[in-house]
Amino acid sequence: MAGNPYEAVFNQLLDAISTTLSTTLTPLSGASSDSSSGSPSGSPSDAYAFTAFLAGENSQFTRFNSAKVRQSGQVRDGQLTLTLMSPERSTTASVPFIGHFETDWPLTQHALAQLHADLPHLPVDPYVVLPVAAESNASADNPTQYPAPASSREVRCGKILSAESVAQTIIGPVATLNFSGLYAGGLCYRAYGDSAGNRHWFETPSFTLDYSLFGDRPDQAVKGTLAGNHWNLDEYQKGIAAACEPLKLLAKPVKAVVKGAYRTYLAPAAVGDLMDTIVWGGGLGEAALRQGNSAFDKLARGEVALSNKFSLSEDFERVSVPRFNRNGAVAPQRLPIIQNGQWVNALVNDRSAKEYGTASNAANDEEAMRAPVVAPGNLKSDEILEQLGTGLYISNLHYLNWSDLTAGRITGMTRYACFWVEAGKIIAPIENLRFDDSLYRFLGEGLMDLTENLTFLPAVDTYERRSLGGMWMPGMLIDQFRYTL
């Protein structure tokens, strides 16, 4: 049963699209093509398939600088992406989604008519994957290795700040601090439906607070995040108090560290910065591996191994994002990618499964991770500095990129709250350093240990819309991490 007007309107649109395709538009099939004319021909009953993906939010955005509100407003936004297919062709259009059928249907109907007009003129695509009923999703054209439901509905509950209380609640504990940040909170929803009758709905109230505390020097700061479905003032106050401790250390004279290789502790946020690059651009997908665009080719081939301390998995039980993707495929709850340093699974979407003749595990279009979790180790939080001894304590990284993708080399810069440590004691903040190292080394022989506790790092992107989810990361102790500048 639909729980809010958006869900009800989305279901109405799906019904209207199905009715229009079956009764109104001129039948067209892409099942085969006349070789002389290139025009499609075939059985009208197989003429069309469609998919519809919805992403939307009702959100409050409040930006802070110097512990004052600088910008505040509410956004209600939605986008419906409609794909029309024949067995050998597909085309896509997006329209705004308002949440009122009388407004949304004319926009959708116009887009559908345009897609119908365009479809016969497009080139043949041999890897189009048509939606099928869930019970038959293991067909030859759409192999899969897991059972997937025809429909799902996940509605999460929560209690977040009201729009009226955001400013006062957040500024209160930081009124005397140089605090800058962005609060984004409200209802987010994702949905999918298709011509085969599959329907999925996901909604959650959620918030993220991405902030920095600055000391006397504007180039030194401590970064923090807070996120969830329930606002917890005590947790927020504890986070601010914890951030104030390294802020005091940043007042010390800065130490210039010469380039070289140093034992390094990467805090969970810094590990998250590294994993951002690895899991979304490193080529963990089947297509990247087959096309030679992966940092993990040697690992996947079994030519090398990482440290047996390192394991990476996709875990939807721990990260609050929908398991269904934009094509309606539903991923398993948990999928190991790397286990104890050994390659286990590539991410495979339905299109790659058809192209390369392998089983799909419902990866997204990019075959990138959506719910990454790195397994913990044995390093206790109160032993980090002792085990580090002399070296670098890195809280955050930025400007990361691949210096040599196929060799697994990543480069980037140190950022906030990074320190030189001697004999297990923090001595001084450091000037910014550039690192350049291979994941085969720092996740291989160089990986000494990982912390026994994981930290949730929320996705805070708001470029097109608020991102969902995040990642669970440990801290990492790495021997001889390489700094080049």
TrEMBL record:
The keyword Protease applies. InterPro entries: Metalloprtase-TldD/E_C, TldD/PmbA_sf. The keyword Hydrolase applies. GO terms for molecular function: metallopeptidase activity. Residues 260-482 form the Metalloprotease TldD/E C-terminal domain. GO terms for biological process: proteolysis. Keywords: Hydrolase, Protease. It holds the Pfam family PmbA_TldD_3rd. SUPFAM superfamilies: Putative modulator of DNA gyrase, PmbA/TldD. PANTHER family: CONSERVED PROTEIN, TLDD PROTEIN. This is Putative Zn-dependent protease. It comes from Phormidesmis priestleyi Ana.
